Input
Amino acid sequence: MTAAETTDQPGSVHNIPLGMMWGAGAGALWGLIMLAPELVRAFTPLQLSTGRYLAYGVIAAVLAAPRWRRLVSGLDRHDWFALFWLSLLGNTLYYILLSMAVRTGGIALTSLVMGFLPVVVTIVGSRDRGAVSLAALAPSLLLCAGGAICIGWQAVASPGATGQSVTGLVFAVMALASWTSYTVGNSRCLMRLSDISVDDWNLLTGLMTGAQAVLLVPAAFLIHGSHHDPGEWEWFALVAITLAITASIFGNAFWNRMSRLVPLTMTGQMILFETLFALIYGCLWEDRWPRPLEMAAFVLIVLSVLTCVSVHHRRVSGRRNTSESLAENGV
Output
């Protein structure tokens, strides 16, 4: 076990640098999901979410079919129940809310609101046995809260604020609540189900999400479906399949690997990589530089992550020094 590794709970081995690498990879891929609603504005958020997760479910089914029996042999009804809620909160419902936030509030606003996730997850994770205390994390939480205030000010009180900005902020906050529930629940499931690989868990999540998407097809495409020409449908299918492969298959796999390598109090901080890449993608799409409040929010959020990482590294180093001291004294 290296200086960057520790165990806070049974079945977990923490490797913070490697976990951060996986978190950055997930963020780079997940940042793309903020662009998708702008790429297919002719389609509704429900249609985009349904199309993306239908593709995710099909890909997961193909990959899971050869080893289906082994894949489900260790699962009980409680695990399937967890998969249902995690798929709903972290995929289906979350992406509908996120798409609506992007449509009304814009990419930058939505991505920065999602950067507030670490505050909520850190507060929840601080109650875990052996977790870093809230007192030690206070500077990180205050910095992240400062970033959230900048975001809220831009959406509500800045000169450029509009009714749509406020609506987008509301949808973004709802998406944040949904994703927070998923982040906490998914991390705890991965710690508990140590015999299931992160790739298998991702495939099972894809199968459950695909099943939910099938149930949404009538509402998305039949009851309130709009008319589109063949070219629009081809572009929509390309975007949906691309999202399924990059964000759902690879992005989720990277995130699950990260979730097993860092403490829960640090898991939420890793979502800020998505904030970084989504903000970059959004500004490139809109062909502009970040606004002053956006830059201030991003700087505060990044400082929050660095502060959180520093706290965890000091904790790991302290444990290592204590272990070495005990070993030298023959304890």
